[in-house]
Amino acid sequence: MSSxxxxxxxEEYDSRVVTYKDVPVVHLSPDAAAHxxxxxxxxxxxxxxAPNANFKVHSHPAEQLMIVVKGExxxxxxxxxxxxxxxxxxxxxxxxxxxxNSLEQECQLIEVFAPARKDFEEKLQQAIAAQK
Length: 132
Prior knowledge:
Blueprint lengths: L9 H7 L8 E5 L2 E7 L4 E7 L4 E5 L4 E8 L1 E6 L2 E6 L3 E4 L5 E5 L4 E8 L3 H14 L1
Antiparallel strand pairs: 1-2, 2-3, 3-10, 4-9, 5-8, 5-10, 6-7, 6-9
């Protein structure tokens, strides 16, 4: 594959490749922190939930894919409760009410939102500004 493509310049590389742990932590709530990676049409969140973290019923226009990487949590979608464990993915359509509660152990998630979550991007910009 290398012979058919020109290697990206450092500037091009930096514009496309992100080490998510180098992105400032955004506090989504007192019990949840995330590294946010923003793209034009999607937002990616690498989130860590403290034990017994609680996200009350809410909705947002963005469709959400919640991938549990470590631990487990209860997720309510449209009034139905789902126990979700590491390696499983919850699909939440946009504008659908949902809630989540981590259990007795820390829970790590990767969340994908489409279209992009502008509110998460604003929190990211605030975290970046606070570092300066």
